[in-house]
C-alpha cells in the first residue's frame, strides 16, 4: 500500500468499548496504521484489528496512576508523522469530547502536520442507549448538558450548583469518585432530591449499572461496587428505562428495579 505523500495523523475515536461500535472509517485507518498511540480506555480487542507489523504504543491516562504527560504524547505524534509513518492516535469515546483531541490538533497544526479527525461514539451516549435511557424526549428532556467531574490540574472545580438547572438532563463523565459532593451541590442548586439518576460502569461491555434518586445515588454506587470508568446520568429520562431497556437483566438488577420508588 502506497504511503501518503505528506505526514498525516488520524485522530480516531475508539468508541465506548464494544469494537463493533467503531465506524468503518476508523476500522480502515487502524488496519492501515504503521504505528498506533492508544489510550488506556481503548478496548485491546480494537488493537487486534491492526497489522502484525504495526507498532502499538500505550499513552494512556488513569486517575491516580502513572500517566503519559500530554506534551510527550504531542512529541511522539509529531516525531512519528515526520518519519512518514501512517499514524493513528486512538482515543476512547470521541476525540473531541473530554478527550484532549483539541490539544493534540493544535500541537500538530503548530508543527505543520496534516491530520484528520474520525469521530467516535462517546461513552455518555452509549451508556444511556444501552440502558434504554433516551437522553432527549419531547415530554421529558429538551436539553442535555455534558459535564466532566474531573477538573484540570491546578484548575477550578466545577460549580455544580450552577449546573443544577442548566439542562433537563445531565451527563457527567469522570465524576464517580466525587459523586457525594456532586449530588450535594446539585441539590443545593435546586435539583430535587427525588430526581432519577443512573450510574453506568464500562458502558457497552460489562454495562454494570445502578439506579437511584439523587439523594441516594452515592450510597447505591458504593453498595453496588461501581467504580471508574463510569458515567452518571441525572434527569427524568432515566425513568424511561423501565419501558425502553433492551439488554437482558440479571436477577439482581431486576430485584433492584422492583425496589425503585
C-alpha-based Rg, rounded: 20 Å
Secondary-structure element series: EHEHEHEHEHEHEHEEHEHH
Largest sheet: 5 strands, parallel
Q: Using the alpha-carbon principal axes, give the shape.
A: globular
- How many E-type strands? 10
Helix count? 10
How much of the sequence lies in strands comes to 15-25%
Description:
By secondary structure, this protein is an alpha/beta fold. Helices cover 30% and strands 20% of the residues. It is built from ten helices and ten strands. The strands form two sheets. The chain has a five-stranded parallel beta sheet with strand order 3-2-4-1-5, sandwiched between helices. α2 (44-47) links the parallel β2 (35-38) and β3. The longest helix has 13 residues, at 70-82. Mean pLDDT is 90; it is low at 251-261.
Question: What descriptive keywords fit this protein?
Answer:
single chain, 261 residues, alpha/beta, 5-stranded mixed beta sheet, disordered C terminus
Topology:
Blueprint: E1 8-13, H1 24-32, E2 35-38, H2 44-47, E3 55-58, H3 70-82, E4 86-91, H4 101-110, E5 114-118, H5 123-131, E6 144-148, H6 160-163, E7 169-173, H7 179-188, E8 196-201, E9 208-213, H8 217-224, E10 230-234, H9 241-244, H10 251-258
Parallel strand pairs: 1-4, 1-5, 2-3, 2-4, 6-7
Antiparallel strand pairs: 7-10, 8-9, 8-10
Amino acid at each position: 500500500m502506497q504511503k501518503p505523500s505528506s505526514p498525516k495523523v488520524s485522530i480516531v475515536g475508539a468508541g465506548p468499548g464494544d469494537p463493533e461500535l467503531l465506524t468503518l472509517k476508523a476500522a480502515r485507518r487502524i488496519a492501515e496504521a504503521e504505528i498506533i498511540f492508544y489510550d488506556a480506555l481503548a478496548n485491546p480487542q480494537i488493537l487486534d484489528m491492526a497489522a502484525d507489523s504495526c507498532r502499538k504504543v500505550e499513552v494512556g491516562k488513569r486517575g491516580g496512576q502513572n500517566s503519559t504527560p500530554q506534551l510527550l504524547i504531542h512529541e511522539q505524534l509529531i516525531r512519528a508523522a515526520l518519519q512518514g509513518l501512517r499514524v493513528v492516535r486512538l482515543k476512547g469515546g470521541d476525540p473531541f469530547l473530554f478527550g484532549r483531541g483539541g490539544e493534540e490538533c493544535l500541537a500538530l497544526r503548530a508543527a505543520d502536520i496534516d491530520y484528520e479527525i474520525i469521530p467516535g461514539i462517546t461513552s455518555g451516549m452509549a451508556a444511556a442507549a444501552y440502558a434504554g435511557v433516551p437522553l432527549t424526549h419531547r415530554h421529558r428532556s429538551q436539553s442535555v448538558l455534558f459535564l466532566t467531574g474531573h477538573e484540570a490540574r491546578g484548575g477550578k472545580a466545577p460549580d455544580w450548583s450552577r449546573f443544577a438547572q442548566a439542562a433537563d438532563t445531565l451527563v457527567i463523565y469522570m465524576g464517580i469518585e466525587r459523586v457525594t459532593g456532586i449530588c450535594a451541590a446539585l441539590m443545593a442548586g435546586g435539583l430535587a432530591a427525588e430526581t432519577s439518576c443512573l450510574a453506568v460502569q464500562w458502558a457497552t461491555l460489562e454495562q454494570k449499572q445502578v439506579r437511584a434518586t439523587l439523594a441516594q445515588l452515592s450510597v447505591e454506587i458504593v453498595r453496588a461496587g461501581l467504580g471508574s470508568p463510569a458515567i452518571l446520568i441525572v434527569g427524568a429520562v432515566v425513568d424511561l428505562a423501565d419501558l425502553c431497556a433492551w439488554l437482558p437483566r440479571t436477577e439482581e438488577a431486576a430485584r433492584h428495579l422492583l425496589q425503585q420508588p
